[in-house]
Amino acid sequence: MAGRRRRRGAGRAALACVTAFAALTGAALAGAAPAAAVQKGGRVAPGVTYEEFDIKAAKGVAHAHLLRVDLGNPQVRVDLLYPGAVAARARVSAMANTQGAVAGVNGDFFNISETQHPGVEATGASVGPAIAAGRTLKAAVPKGQRFGPALPPGTTTEDVFGVGTDGRARLDRLTLAGSVRTAETQLPLGGLNQYALPVGSVGAFTSEWGSVSRVRSTCGTDTDRAAPCSTDTYEVTVRDGKVVSAADAPGSGPIAAGTTVLVGREAGAQQLRKFSTGESVEVEHSLVAATDGVAYRLALGGYPVLSGGQPLPGLDDTTSAVRTAVGIADGGRRVLLLALDAAAYRSGLTIAEVAGTMRKLGSEDAFSLDGGGSSTLVARKAGASTVSVRNHPSGGAERLVPNGIGVFSG
After folding, report:
1. What is the spatial distance between Cα 236 and Cα 260, in angstroms, rounded to a whole number?
2. Which CA distances in Å does 278 have to 181, 261, 271, 275?
3. Using an 8 Å Cβ cutoff, are 111 and 216 in contact?
4. SS (H, E, C) 371-391
5. What is the pLDDT of residues 71-109, one digit of tens each?
6. Interatomic CA distance for residues 349 and 355, integer angstroms
7. How far apart are CA 348 and CA 322, in angstroms?
8. What CA–CA distance (Å, rounded) separates 401 from 408?
9. pLDDT band at 39 (very low <50, low <70, confident <90, very high)
């Protein structure tokens, strides 16, 4: 996260003895360690193991499913699971099988509904930044436009879990930097493949977006997701560096490679109206990390709950729910992926209990992903060539989600 360095060495020393499971804020692990106490589990692939166990929580007993991933194993890597477009959704198992993953969990919160904007299509796009195989897919929506529970104090929609090209996992913050240039003007870029653009901004949509309508990007405000859609919008299509068309409202349909669609709202729309057909336009964009150093191979949004072995201040300790989370251990060399069973089977955890659980499992840092009906953990069984759903999702079936964390081996 921005402005905060992790105390890796101290965290490892403090967390070395994970077999001593003292009570933690109403949540105590039963069966997570030592291995003899694990109810079920085993090897999924070289460097990847699965286990399940109970957690005694304040409101009952939660049942957890856990993947331990050794990034120090040269056969192991993690990457983004996604359906091939930002504005698309699929089941975690289908994404894992299509991409050849041996295991995985669901990922970021997303634009799941549009009841406040009748007639506007929900995009299914995720809230936070996303990077897959080192390729930038999207940036974060404004904080007031996010879906999901309230963020902990001091966190933003730009917070990410990521794995760098060095193979190490870390938490960070990715901010969009970009511009739209013509011979006459230079405009800041306010969004990249986002379901919500900042008020008064210009956003860019590329072939990574998909074919879903771009109207949702001009609805709501930076502080009120349910606010009406803007009535002052404009869209410009740029192909091979030249303006080829314009429209008064955002459109839909696939965007060809080499084409960028610029969508403006309010002041941004007024600026785009000055563009003319045939005019040269240069669009640049990148995601800038708050920490220095390595580029990201994988990044996705959610929010941090544990940093340097300490829970973030202000975590909710009253609302119990089904959760998915990812933990980082051994200075980024190990990743822990956790998902709970649906409430119909067992109790849930509060976010404070999630932080405590991930710390007891050995995590130095931890990150909350989408929960509830989205919580899904998949892994291959011995001898299988496809994954199986290991937890019990809400409603007895997998929810369609925009992305996830995939584990690859071999």
Report:
1. 8
2. 14, 15, 16, 9
3. yes
4. CHHHCCEEEECCCCCCEEECC
5. 999 999 999 999 999 999 999 999 999 999 999 999 999
6. 10
7. 5
8. 19
9. low
Tokens matching residue 263: 């969508």
Element (H, E) at 398: none
Q: Cα separations (Å) of 396 from 50, 343, 371, 375?
A: 21, 11, 15, 11
Q: Which amino acid is located at 220 in the chain?
A: G
Tell me, what amino acid is at 65? H
Length of the chain: 410
CB contact set of 334 (below 8 Å; sequence gap of 6+): 68, 69, 70, 71, 72, 169, 328, 362
Q: What is the pLDDT of residues 197-229, one digit of tens each?
A: 999 999 999 999 999 999 999 999 999 999 999
Report residue 129 as tokens: 């930044």
DSSP E strand boundaries for 58-118: 60-70, 76-81, 103-106
Tokens 């993947």 sit at which residue?
A: 67
317-345 pLDDT per residue, tens: 999 999 999 999 999 999 999 999 998 88
Alpha-carbon distance of 92 to 344, in angstroms, equals 21
Structural contact between residues 312 and 4, judged by C-beta atoms closer than 8 angstroms: no
- Helices vs. strands in the chain: H and E counts, helices first: 4, 26
Check if the beta carbon of residue 387 is closer than 8 Å to that of residue 56.
Answer: no
- Residue 297 identity (one-letter amino acid): R
Helix spans in 262-373 (H):
267-272, 351-360
3-state secondary structure (DSSP) of residue 274: coil
CA–CA separation, 248 and 250 (whole Å): 7
Residue 195, both tokens: 């379901």
Residue 236 neighbours by CB distance under 10 Å:
26
Do the strands 233-239 and 259-265 form a parallel or antiparallel pair, or are they unpaired? antiparallel
7 Cα distance to chain centroid: 24
